[in-house]
Amino acid sequence: MPYLIQILLPRPVREDGAADAGFAQTRAELVERYDGVTAYLRSPAQGAWIAPDGRVERDEVVMVEVVTETFDRAWWRAYAQQLANRFRQEAIHIRALSAEMP
Questions:
Q1: How many angstroms separate the Cα of 9 from the Cα of each of 21, 53, 59, 93?
Q2: CB neighbours of 90 closer than 8 A, spacing ≥ 6?
Q3: Residue of 23, 29, 35, 80 with fewest CB within 10 Å of its CB?
Q4: Facing residues of 39 across strands?
């Protein structure tokens, strides 16, 4: 059964409008491994959470998706940690959904 893998990443645009190098690297890695990637860049989602000091933190995130025939949980767990380090995040949210392909 195919899987749709969705990754939430920090918004990949610098102040000068150029694509962030970390995002470009991630996109290249996913294209190489999964033969394609879709990134929803035009309307970033807005995230909010309570920081340890009690303040509400906000950021903008984009959704990146790949489709694969198998879900290697160990690989994705390690890749999520690699992405967290790359994007200087505490964690990166990744979800795997069963997908039906026509």
A1: 13, 23, 10, 8
A2: 84
A3: 35
A4: 64
| Chain center to CA of 88 | 13
Q: Count other Cβ atoms within 10 Å, centred on residue 14.
A: 11
Compute the Cα dihedral for 83, 41, 62, 97 and give only its sign.
Answer: negative
pLDDT at 16: 57
Give pTM, 2 decimals: 0.83
Angle at 82 between CA 23 and CA 53, to 5 degrees: 90
Domains and CATH numbers, the chain: 3-98 (3.30.70.120)
The CA distance from 22 to 12, in Å, is 8
CA 67, 84, 86, 22 torsion: positive or negative? Answer: positive
Report the chain (102 residues): mean pLDDT per 10 consecutive residues. Answer: 93 62 92 94 81 89 93 96 92 93 77
What is the model's pLDDT at position 12?
A: 62
